[in-house]
Structures are given as structure tokens and as C-alpha cells.
């Protein structure tokens, strides 16, 4: 299972009484048990590394945004969860809306390899976009004011905000991510099984439990 660090949609480390968790991590563990396979979480620094691994057939399963460009090399299940996208604003900035962000000299970060890389130039063409290599780097840049804000799905933004005192997630919704389970496209015939598995997780209430355990924020209705 390809996962990436410190996001409730993927994997969160054990802390105190809380075990290792994350919606992707938990779904992968249950799926592996059902098909009688050893579960091996492979944790990467960022989602771009996960996508590279699945493209190169180095992992068997991922849980990520089922965008059209990724569907060229990933076979996806139906949507499992839908998440709002938006902006996290640095404590050093007074920005209050998307309209204020779309101005010259306003610096907005995004993750390399993310869909934001293609979407932000259309949404905020007047702002300056800054590529970051990881959420850890983005958090540091938000704290220092090196970037005025960061854009991705709100599940990640709220998790980042907990590490940046005084930062805030804007109420603006600039789009949605439809997260699904996926396998390398070379693994033929996985769609039916994945869809049945997703239906089972919903019907049994396990998906709801995984969502609650992850502490995810920013979910939108499917």
C-alpha cells in the first residue's frame, strides 16, 4: 500500500493512546486481510512519490484523488470520500478571501506533482505560485511568512494548521477531490472487486469508523 506522511486520508503516526491510522492505511489493511495477503504499508514523503511508485508498479494499492490524468495509469474504484479544496493562510498574512489572494506579489504554495499545480494558475492567475517538496517544507514557509498561503484539499490543510499556530483555513471552496482506491493499470480486472469492497466498507459502517478515527476535516457530501 503506497501512503504518504501525516495526512488523515493516508497515514497518521501512532501517538499516545492513538494507534497508526488514516483512511487509506485502514482500508488497505482490511483489503489485504480479505484476500489473504501480508499488509505492507510503504510510506513516502509526499503524494508525488506515491504516484511515481504506482506508475512504476512498485506498490499494489493507493488511496488518492481520482483525477483524469491519474486514471491514465491507475485503475480506480468508485469515489470513497469527497473533500473540499481551499487555502491555508500564514499567521504572517492578513488575507481573508480568494479574491484577495489573486493579486500580484501574493505567494501561494502547492505540492509538486499535485493537481493544484495545474489548477492554481487558472484560479489565481495574478498570484505568484511557489512549489514545495513536502508539507513539512510548506509548514516551515507558512510559519516564516515566506509564503502567504498554501493550497490543497482541506483534510491536509487542517492537519497542517495544527502545526502552524495562528494560521487559518479560509471558508472558500475552490473545488473538490474525489478520493478512491486504485491499483496500477497493469493489474487488469480490479475495478469490480474494488467497487464491491468500497460498498462493503460503507454498508458495514467500517468506513465511517475509519473516517472518525482519522479526525479528518473538510469532507463534502459524495
Automatic annotation (TrEMBL):
Q: Which domain of life is it from?
A: Bacteria
Domain Solute-binding protein family 3/N-terminal stretches: 3-217
Signal peptide range equals: none
Task: Alphabetically list the UniProt keywords.
Answer: Signal
What SMART domains does the annotation carry? PBPb
User: Which InterPro entries does the record associate with it?
Assistant: Solute-binding_3/MltF_N
Q: Per its record, how is this protein called by name?
A: Solute-binding protein family 3/N-terminal domain-containing protein
Q: Which organism is it from?
A: Polynucleobacter wuianus
Amino acid at each position: 500500500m503506497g501512503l504518504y506522511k501525516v495526512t488523515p486520508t493516508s497515514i497518521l503516526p501512532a501517538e499516545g493512546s492513538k494507534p497508526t491510522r488514516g483512511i487509506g492505511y485502514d482500508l488497505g489493511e482490511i483489503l489485504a486481510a480479505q484476500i489473504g495477503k501480508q499488509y505492507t504499508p510503504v510510506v513516502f514523503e509526499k503524494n508525488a512519490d506515491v504516484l511515481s511508485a504506482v506508475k512504476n508498479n512498485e506498490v499494489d494499492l493507493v488511496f488518492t484523488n481520482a483525477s483524469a490524468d491519474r486514471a491514465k495509469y491507475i485503475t480506480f474504484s468508485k469515489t470513497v470520500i469527497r473533500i473540499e479544496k481551499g487555502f491555508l493562510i500564514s499567521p504572517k498574512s492578513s488575507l481573508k478571501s480568494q479574491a484577495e489572494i489573486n493579486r500580484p506579489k501574493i505567494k501561494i504554495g502547492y505540492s509538486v506533482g499535485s493537481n493544484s499545480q495545474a489548477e492554481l494558475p487558472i484560479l489565481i492567475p495574478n498570484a505568484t505560485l511557489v512549489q514545495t517538496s513536502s508539507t513539512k517544507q510548506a509548514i516551515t514557509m507558512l510559519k516564516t511568512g515566506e509564503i502567504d498561503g498554501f493550497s490543497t484539499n482541506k483534510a491536509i490543510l487542517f492537519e497542517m494548521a495544527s502545526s502552524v499556530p495562528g494560521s487559518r483555513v479560509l471558508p472558500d471552496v475552490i473545488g473538490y477531490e474525489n478520493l478512491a482506491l486504485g491499483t496500477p493499470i497493469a493489474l487488469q480486472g480490479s475495478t469490480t472487486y474494488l467497487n464491491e469492497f468500497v460498498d462493503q466498507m460503507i454498508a458495514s459502517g467500517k468506513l465511517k469508523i475509519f473516517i472518525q478515527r482519522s479526525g479528518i476535516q473538510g469532507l463534502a457530501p459524495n
